[in-house]
Design a protein that fits this description.
Length: about 290
């Protein structure tokens, strides 16, 4: 298993990535990162900027597990809007290749104008599923050409509302380059929040042939009158990371587990927690230059 993280002190602009930042990542016990680089437009960022980052990471012995897919709407019924989203994903895959990234991470988007992860009734329609399949099939050749996985993250508020739906859509797309970036917390509900291990096992039973990585953030139900399920830094909630680690390791020791929801101050404790769990389970945490 490989360990990485996103957010925290990682920069939003690739020009700001330095050897010192990479050394800080390594000192915390991580061998790779998910760098979002939100400020770098995939349509206009020049190759030389990306290749500088690639060289810095290589020099410091750090892997780039993921970069962002820029969160555009992949389900829109307006073909002009959907077509623009396809072009952005294709550009993101090209930029990821220049950076030396293993994969891009994106959700399906949302019909809610306030954000790509917010609920909207059209998100869960058969039309949105069909549009998503069409989009992914159009993007798959670019993923293969660039040697970068297009990995989809689901959430119960968007079209990829469950492991079942995600497996059905990825099966219909039928590309080895379009895969699942599994995030257990995004599918935890009131019914499963007190037995997250069973929920993770159920998801893996349905989705394992598509999973190539995992996000690791925690989840808990808050003491409020209205239902509120909160996510956050690992160690603060009830997610069964032991089950997650067992299942991802069984798929491939090469697959990364990427910490989400952690602030910079949380990272030393999260790293200790995850290294301790891995040791308890006799799972070897691979360094960047080790092969599985």
């Amino acid at each position: 298993m490989r360990l990485g993280f996103c957010g925290a002190f990682l920069p939003d602009d690739m020009d700001d990535l330095t050897p010192e930042i990479c050394q800080r990542v390594r000192a915390l016990g991580f061998s790779g990162i998910f760098a979002r680089f939100r400020k770098n437009d995939p349509h206009t960022t020049p190759r030389e900027k990306a290749e500088r980052v690639r060289q810095v990471l290589a020099d410091e012995g750090l892997r780039l597990f993921q970069v962002t897919g820029y969160w555009q709407n992949l389900i829109h019924s307006d073909e002009a809007t959907r077509g623009a989203s396809v072009r952005t994903v294709q550009a993101a895959l090209r930029l990821a290749s220049w950076l030396g990234a293993r994969q891009i991470d994106t959700g399906p988007g949302s019909m809610n104008p306030d954000g790509p992860w917010f609920a909207h009734p059209e998100n869960w329609t058969q039309n949105s599923r069909s549009q998503l399949v069409k989009t992914l099939k159009e993007c798959a050749p670019a993923a293969e050409e660039n040697g970068v996985f297009l990995s989809l993250e689901g959430h119960q508020l968007v079209t990829l509302e469950s492991a079942q739906v995600t497996a059905a859509i990825l099966g219909e797309v039928d590309s080895p380059w379009v895969r699942s970036d599994y995030d257990a917390a995004n599918w935890i509900s009131r019914e499963t929040v007190f037995n997250t291990g069973a929920a993770i096992n159920s998801d893996f039973d349905l989705l394992s042939r598509f999973i190539i990585s995992a996000h690791a953030k925690d989840i808990w139900i808050e003491n409020r009158h209205a239902l509120h399920i909160q996510d956050g830094s690992p160690g603060k909630g009830v997610l069964d990371f032991r089950t997650l680690f067992r299942r991802i390791e069984a798929l491939s020791p090469d697959y990364p587990v990427i910490v989400e929801g952690a602030e910079t101050a949380d990272l030393p404790e999260v790293s200790r927690l995850f290294h301790d769990i891995a040791a308890e389970l006799s799972i070897r945490v691979l360094d960047a230059d080790e092969t599985a």
